[in-house]
UniProtKB/TrEMBL annotation:
Residues 1-19 form the signal peptide. It comes from Flagellimonas pelagia. Keywords: Signal. Pfam families: DUF2490. InterPro entries: DUF2490. This is DUF2490 domain-containing protein. It comes from the Bacteria.
Length: 228
């Protein structure tokens, strides 16, 4: 009887280890930079770099570089056409046999902003065309994303930021992932800020906890482009 119980415990342990995803039990980290630089009254350039780790300072997971051209319809509505490059290291020290991948991504985006009392809301709608390269195979996938973000100013310097973002696959399984985020922000200057927060990233078969540090730098570049 004891041998049977020990056998069942061992089998359960094997199933748990097998089901575990790379780095799922670790607190990972994303270190990010975002920039929106006005080049004319209607147009601005989006720049972005993200460095993602399975752990807070080690086991590199992903590099994401993204840029785009924004068209400001009005102060509360922005349309964007952009491109992203993503290099993913799927290996983790417990899972050395995973295959690395590279991705070229085109995206179309629309942002709407509104204010309710002191709360600043932002609705972001995004479509993505993903061209994936796994070395010995390639794939093209399509995805839709919706993010609802809320910002609450506490003082002229400090603020709180929250968002929830849903990813919908336009092929195969409908649910892609969901990101729930909360952060404290600091306005450093008129055009720069810093956010420190936590994100719960849920997939259909895994949940990741991620510490996040984000730097925002948005200088107005119209003076450079309007020089005669």
């Amino acid at each position: 009887m004891i041998k049977k119980i020990m056998g069942l415990v061992f089998l359960f342990g094997c199933l748990v280890v097998k089901a575990q995803q790379p780095g799922e039990d670790k607190l990972g980290a994303w270190y990010m930079y975002f920039g929106t630089n006005k080049v004319s009254e209607r147009f601005s350039i989006h720049t972005e770099a993200q460095f993602r780790f399975y752990e807070t300072t080690s086991n590199f997971n992903q590099l994401l570089l993204r840029t785009g051209l924004n068209y400001h319809i009005n102060p509360d509505a922005i349309a964007t056409l952009g491109y992203g490059y993503i290099s993913t290291d799927n290996t983790f020290y417990e899972f050395p046999d995973e295959i690395d991948s590279k991705e070229h991504r085109v995206f179309e985006q629309f942002i709407l902003k509104n204010k309710v009392w002191e709360f600043l809301f932002e609705h972001r709608y995004r479509l993505e065309q993903r061209f994936l390269d796994f070395g010995d195979a390639t794939d093209t996938q399509h995805r839709a994303r919706y993010r609802l973000q809320m910002t609450l100013p506490l003082t002229d310097t400090f603020y709180l930021n929250f968002y929830d973002e849903l990813f919908i696959n336009l092929q195969d399984d409908l649910f892609g992932q969901n990101r729930l985020y909360a952060a404290v922000g600091v306005n450093i200057t008129e055009n720069s800020s810093l956010q420190v927060g936590y994100m719960r990233n849920q997939f259909s078969d895994a949940v990741y906890d991620r510490f996040q540090v984000a730097v925002f730098y948005n200088p107005d570049l119209r003076g450079l482009f309007n020089k005669k």
